[in-house]
């Protein structure tokens, strides 16, 4: 490979890994019929004049497989936390007992499982698009370098390397999607 041109593959890989990490976070927020503290991560509460993550106004616990509890630290925020959970679109009806909000996780019906599978597919497609955008950036750097005295052979080598990285990352996205869809469809 040419001594003049060095493509920063570690930067491309880091950016693609970022897309994978975002996908894992989105997948963690999908309800699968089992209780998980991470399902409340996207919930924001209107507290102290600003939108605050739920884990910064109370302790989120999973005491049993079908129950999540939120122990709200400030009693004045209990109704706001309850409202935020109701409006989050998780399909959970909170039950309040003092400063503790209990969230019983109902069984998912077949239709809801299919909907969640489609949502997981949309999340995966967004991750694939992000990875392809990083690949495009890398390819543009290579094409720019070609106009600055990069040989065609070197250009092909760099393009193949970027494509192999992209293929590996997209395979990882597909693998995560397959695992998540199996988890969602599990009764």
TrEMBL record:
Gene3D superfamilies: 3.30.1360.40, Ribosome-recycling factor. GO terms for cellular component: cytosol. Keywords: Cytoplasm, Protein biosynthesis. It comes from Pontibaca methylaminivorans. Its main location: cytoplasm. Pfam families: RRF. Belongs to the RRF family. It comes from the Bacteria. This is Ribosome-recycling factor. One of its GO terms (molecular function) is ribosomal large subunit binding. Residues 23-185 form the Ribosome recycling factor domain. It is found in: Cytoplasm. InterPro entries: Ribosome_recyc_fac, Ribosome_recyc_fac_dom, RRF_sf. Responsible for the release of ribosomes from messenger RNA at the termination of protein biosynthesis. May increase the efficiency of translation by recycling ribosomes from one round of translation to another. Signal peptide: none annotated. GO terms for biological process: cytoplasmic translational termination. HAMAP family: RRF.
